[in-house]
TrEMBL record, chain A:
GO terms for biological process: regulation of DNA-templated transcription. The gene is pyrR. The keyword Transcription applies. This is Bifunctional protein PyrR. PANTHER family: BIFUNCTIONAL PROTEIN PYRR (PTHR11608:SF0). Its EC number is 2.4.2.9. It holds the Pfam family Pribosyltran. Keywords: Glycosyltransferase, Transcription, Transcription regulation, Transferase. A motif (PRPP-binding) lies at residues 97-109. It catalyses: UMP + diphosphate = 5-phospho-alpha-D-ribose 1-diphosphate + uracil.
TrEMBL record, chain B:
Heterododecamer (2C3:3R2) of six catalytic PyrB chains organized as two trimers (C3), and six regulatory PyrI chains organized as three dimers (R2). It comes from Taibaiella lutea. It catalyses: carbamoyl phosphate + L-aspartate = N-carbamoyl-L-aspartate + phosphate + H(+). Catalyzes the condensation of carbamoyl phosphate and aspartate to form carbamoyl aspartate and inorganic phosphate, the committed step in the de novo pyrimidine nucleotide biosynthesis pathway. This is Aspartate carbamoyltransferase. The lineage of its organism: Bacteria, Pseudomonadati, Bacteroidota, Chitinophagia, Chitinophagales. Pathway: Pyrimidine metabolism; UMP biosynthesis via de novo pathway; (S)-dihydroorotate from bicarbonate: step 2/3. One of its GO terms (cellular component) is cytosol.
């Protein structure tokens, strides 16, 4: 097991990502944040919190999306996936959506996420923010717009982001 | 995580974990049903036949909607107007349908045990949509979902089942489900409509409607099933209504608010007066709405069940 990110490093990176979002969206008047269930939500919680500190008084619509029912491996996956909660209490019609996930790997989760998003309206644009981009392992033509860290890894390895809320500590590790 | 069963033949075969999984999955589908686009692509390569050997309004429409909301292809079969009248057997009928690449069967039949019999002869998953006087598992699941939605949890809740316990498959499925999930159950009705030894299922028996209403958090009022009663079990509907029907004056005289449920169709003025069925205590139409989400959950979990 190799540590890629320590807690302090993670905090700085999240701060940077929040600033990059701010740079591109400024007042967030038409922008909404969507965290991907299950583990992208920990990251989107932090980013949302950070943005609230950076631009106090502005309320940014924030939701979470579960893509279980949109997966492309319902029949081929060795296990049945159990859905988590989706909470998007606003329309995405003509909004700029920032989709947030912890690790971008094959791109299939994001593909499903894009499908699911359309059921909530037609967004003006969709951007993708990820903490870890495992490059050279994409199975679909999907690329992130904001990246915390780019990692080169082989399929046998697994990159896991640990969160204090769930795993008792903040850290990014690579498991062989 | 998945269900412990390949078919949903009855609540009797489910574990409390299965029931919990179905109800939690139904929460997610209920959310899908509130969206502008009430449909997910999950079962797009699944074909489901709705095999109805007995009449139905709610259950058949609810299953069909659930299947469509999951993007499954559906075929509707009703016994009347089919080759059943030419003498084709159940197994032959089903095998012919399955040979056209159908993956799942939803079946209602007037004979108790018909889906269990079919399960021994075909490979496809079967969902029991009501078999004779045995079980109606999806109804019990949607009842539980509706109670849980109103009261938070089933454990420790007091549920009374009123009316024709003897002929009601809804009653039996509810008894299995509620006792498995830790609710307290009383069945209440005229002695002729309550089966002997029903206490063995873990329920109490009462013949006093008023006392039972005073006791319960939820009153699930069941339909008098005249079509299944071969001999008279009470003298007249009027007499039944007088002694065992539930009316608004009774509810108003209770010291607390209770929830009124009914699986439908209602015999208005017999087991339930209109002023109760349409009152704010009644969650009868919520039950119907929840039925679609619960059936989506059942179909999703069975279709996704992996071969071991």
């Amino acid at each position: 097991m190799k540590s890629l990110f320590t807690q302090q490093h993670l905090q700085i990176t999240i701060e940077r990502l929040a600033h990059q979002l701010l740079e591109n969206h400024l007042d967030f008047s038409d922008t909404v944040l969507i965290g991907m269930q299950p583990r992208g939500v920990f990251l989107s919680d932090r980013i949302h919190q950070k943005l609230k500190e950076l631009i106090p008084g502005v309320s940014i619509p924030y939701g979470m999306l579960d893509i279980t029912f949109y997966r492309d491996d319902f029949n081929t996956s060795p296990e049945l996936h159990i859905a988590k909660e989706t909470q998007i209490n606003f329309s995405l019609e003509n909004k700029k959506v920032v989709l947030i996930d912890d690790v971008l790997y094959t791109g299939r989760t994001i593909r499903a996420g894009l499908d699911a998003l359309l059921d909530f309206g037609r967004p003006e644009s969709v951007e993708l923010l990820v903490l870890i981009d495992r490059r050279f392992s994409r199975e679909l033509p999907i690329q992130p717009d904001y990246v915390g860290m780019t990692v080169d890894s082989v399929a046998a390895q697994k990159v896991k982001v640990l969160w204090k809320e769930k795993d008792k500590k903040d850290e990014v590790v690579m498991l062989d | 995580m998945s269900l412990s069963v390949k078919h949903l033949l009855g609540i009797k075969d489910l574990t409390p974990e299965d029931i919990d999984l179905i109800l939690r999955t139904a929460d997610n589908f209920k959310d899908v049903l509130q969206r502008p686009i009430k449909k997910v692509p999950t079962l797009r390569d699944t074909t489901i036949v709705n095999l109805f050997y007995e009449n139905s309004t709610r259950t058949r429409i609810s299953f069909e909607l659930a299947e469509k909301r999951l993007s499954a292809d559906t075929i509707n079969f009703t016994a009347s107007g089919s080759s059943v009248s030419k003498g084709e057997t159940l197994i032959d009928t089903v095998n012919n349908i399955l040979s056209m690449k159908v993956d799942m069967v939803v079946m209602r039949h007037s004979a108790s045990g018909a889906p269990h019999f079919l399960a021994q002869h075909i490979n496809a998953s079967i969902v029991n949509a009501g078999d004779g006087i045995n079980e109606h598992p999806t109804q019990a699941l949607l009842d539980a979902f509706s109670i849980r939605e109103k009261l938070g949890d089933l454990k420790g809740k007091k549920v009374a089942l009123f009316g024709d316990i003897m002929h009601s498959r809804v009653a039996l499925s509810n008894i299995y489900l509620l006792t498995k999930m830790g609710a307290e159950v009383i069945v209440c009705g005229p002695p002729t409509l309550i089966p002997k030894h029903i206490e063995k299922l873990g329920v109490k028996v009462s013949y006093d409607v008023r006392k039972t209403l005073e006791w319960c958090d939820v009153a699930n009022v069941l339909r008098i099933q005249l079509e299944r009663q071969n001999k008279p079990l009470f003298s007249t509907l009027r007499e039944y209504s007088l002694y065992y029907g539930i009316n608004k004056a009774m509810l108003d005289s209770l010291k607390k608010e209770i929830i009124i449920m009914h699986p439908g169709p209602i015999n208005r003025g017999v087991e339930l007066n209109s002023d109760v069925a349409d009152s704010k205590n009644s969650i009868i139409l919520d039950q119907v709405q929840n039925g679609v989400a619960v059936r989506m959950a059942v179909l999703y979990l069975l279709a996704g069940k992996k071969e071991e």
